[in-house]
């Protein structure tokens, strides 16, 4: 199981690195800027999670995460140089896949530390959204997490699905798939149909 979790984690890092590289391309950054933005997007949330949980930072212990970032960034750069197009929809989809992976992986890591379901869901949400938040702040964009469409809420729903499935005795892997699928589908639906939570309306 741990072997599969590691590969899922690597895939999540690679997908978030792609979204960071796409944003760097949009902002006309140089090669160093691309790597920096891809890296903070990919490992920012997990780094914060590990620091809060007082754990060794995951990418320091396992440098293959950094290799995954480099490979994902280079492949994305080559693809962009061939197409010369910025696919904003691809950025949103890559970001959605990234938060789905990182949400459940962060939640599971918190559960492994006996934090309890509520704190684990908070840690999962933080892992999923914080890297993208840093990316958008660096690029002077309104962070996706602060825009109207459902974003962090999708992590909470996915986390609740995962925790609920585990409490009903569903095995680990199907529970993880359920949580990831719930997060991803809800986020993709929000992108497609602009689902939002009710917001305060200013007085007129």
UniProtKB/TrEMBL annotation:
Keywords: Cell membrane, Membrane, Transmembrane, Transmembrane helix. InterPro entries: Gly_transporter. The keyword Cell membrane applies. It is a multi-pass membrane protein. It comes from the Bacteria. Belongs to the UPF0126 family. This is Trimeric intracellular cation channel family protein. It comes from Bowmanella yangjiangensis. The lineage of its organism: Bacteria, Pseudomonadati, Pseudomonadota, Gammaproteobacteria, Alteromonadales.
């Amino acid at each position: 199981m741990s072997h599969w979790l590691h590969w899922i984690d690597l895939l999540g890092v690679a997908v978030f690195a792609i979204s960071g590289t796409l944003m760097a391309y949009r902002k006309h950054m140089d090669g160093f800027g691309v790597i920096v933005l891809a890296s903070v997007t990919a490992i920012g949330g997990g780094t914060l999670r590990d620091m809060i949980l007082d754990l060794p930072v995951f990418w320091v212990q396992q440098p293959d995460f950094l290799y995954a970032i480099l490979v994902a960034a280079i492949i994305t750069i080559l693809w962009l140089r061939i197409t010369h197009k910025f696919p904003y929809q691809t950025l949103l989809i890559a970001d959605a896949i990234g938060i789905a992976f990182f949400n459940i992986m962060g939640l599971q890591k918190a559960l492994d530390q006996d934090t309890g379901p509520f704190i684990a869901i908070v840690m999962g949400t933080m892992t999923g959204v914080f890297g993208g938040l840093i990316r958008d702040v660096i690029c002077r964009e309104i962070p996706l997490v602060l825009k109207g469409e459902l974003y962090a809420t999708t992590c909470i729903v996915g986390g609740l699905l995962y925790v609920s499935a585990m409490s009903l005795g569903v095995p680990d892997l199907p529970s993880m798939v359920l949580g990831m699928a719930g997060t991803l589908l809800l986020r993709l639906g929000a992108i497609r149909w602009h689902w939002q939570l009710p917001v305060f309306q200013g007085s007129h």
